[in-house]
Amino acid sequence: MVNRRNFLSLAALSGVAAACGSRSGERLEPPPGAVMATPLFVPPLLAPPLDGDGARHFELAMQTGRTMILPGQQTPTWGFNGAFLGPTLRAGRGDVIRMTVRNGLPEASTVHWHGIRVPAAMDGGPHQLIQPGAVWNPAWTLDQPATTAWYHPHPHGTTAQHVYRGLAGLFIVDDAEDHGLPAAYGVDDVPLVLQDKEFAADGSFSGDPLRGIYGILGDHMLVNGVWNPRFDVTTQRVRLRILNGAQARMFNLTFADRRRFHVVGNDGGLLGAPVEVDQLVLTPGERAEVVVGFAPGDDVVLRTLDNGVDLAKGDFDLVRFVAATGLKPSPALPAHPATLPAIVPPAGARLRTFALGGRDSINGRPMDMDRIDEVVPAGAVEIWEVDGSGFAHNFHIHEVAFQVLDVNGAAPPAHASGHKDTVYVPVRSKVRLAVQFGRDTDPSSPYMYHCHILRHEDAGMMGQFVIVEPGTESQVPHTLSARPGQQPTPPHH
Ligand code: C2O
Ligand code: CU
Ligand code: CU
């Protein structure tokens, strides 16, 4: 049974009619004060207490529903524990995690813990298919630094559809350190799940996620599922945990008044020092944690600006921040949000190269679920070099933490120098990564690496690697077919 208290309720949202006009897709200049008035929805936390056997037991139900996103329109949507999106999962380093994932959808799907370091059979990639009506029960011990990760379906060929319909949520990992950052969830520690959509006249999501070169670049920006949201600021500083949960769109984030803010975390954890910026680029799957300062009475919009890259097409408002006339004091910006060890490839580190091809292959081959492309010894630090194509891409590696060594020979900017799992690969560029692999071995359960533009990953711009005991690499067969243990989960009654 799914705990009903944990159901994501968008009821509050449905009652709010945003006072805005057309959905024609044109950016409007509406009357002042009439837009960006819908309260920002904050996904509820799902942080179960320790149960009798010392584990945290999460229950997630994938389901269909309808959601009022545009005023007066019911959009058919998919969600976890509710009609649209999913709760924010939260657990601490060292916790034993037990998941019950129930598929109430009409199609087989999976749930991948993007940015969470788990044994391969628990990863929720395309091999851990959950049939309609079936239940999947992965379990693992959480062991990684504090970070903002997320979860989403990963069925081969239909990930774009499943995510587009609304299946996505955040997964916050805490650790024992005091990071000195604002930490009141929904008050001064606020998740922003950024996604773009296209709507048909009847309010349904339109557009083919597999069309064209990049799939959908929508003309409606949703933040936590809300179009034109407003967030009421009550503190001097707010920490934003930002996820690019879009199909393809690059968010080129900036405030309308160009105010500066501090990046304090990348995908894989917090930075050694805050980095001041006035602009921040996130490609699909990437996360950042930032701290923004506000003055009493501020009224400012966070926007995404066209920067000439196809994926960032158009200027759009995302969320409006309205500060109270009296703001509660916030902790000073910490000098050292965290101290994560640098990922340093040893002398003679293994170099692997990945040439992204067009929109559907890596190293000349499209994804084959039966083929193991790479075999990596447990605990290795390797250099992975990703070569772009004539299209824009990015690159995500499951299980690992990496640091960007260089992009076309130049070190990454300080605000993107931390631990990551997803990185932008600009047109015709070469990105080199120092990749730290984990210690969970399983020669017959692969992890994925792929472009996180969902149209590309669904078309086959993905490969598979296994992590094995050092010294056994050459014994690992490069095909999975006819092996046991690769069958989909049987239906469960
Ligand atoms: Cu966010 Cu392999 O995915
Ligand atoms: Cu992932
Ligand atoms: Cu791509």
Give the gist of this structure.
The chain is built from 3 helices and 33 strands.
Please specify the SSE layout and strand pairing:
Layout: H1 11-14, E1 38-39, E2 45-46, E3 55-68, E4 74-80, E5 88-92, E6 96-103, E7 112-114, E8 135-136, E9 139-141, E10 147-152, H2 159-164, E11 169-174, E12 189-197, E13 220-223, E14 226-227, E15 229-235, E16 237-244, E17 251-255, E18 261-266, E19 269-277, E20 280-282, E21 287-293, E22 299-304, E23 316-328, E24 351-357, E25 361-362, E26 374-377, E27 381-387, E28 393-397, E29 401-407, E30 422-425, E31 430-436, E32 447-450, H3 454-459, E33 462-468
The structure holds CU-O-CU linkage (C2O) and copper (II) ion (2 copies).
Residues 112, 114, 152, 154, 285, 396, 398, 448, 450, 452 line the site of CU-O-CU linkage.
**Count, helices:** 3
- Read across the widest sheet, the strand sequence of neighbours is 14-13-12-16-21-18-19
Approximate helicity band: under 10%
CATH architecture of the largest domain: Sandwich
Strand content: 35-45%
Q: Briefly note the structural class of the backbone.
A: mainly beta
Main beta sheet, described? 7 strands, mixed
Keywords: Metal-binding, Oxidoreductase
Organism: Kitasatospora paracochleata
Family: Belongs to the multicopper oxidase family.
EC number: 1.16.3.4
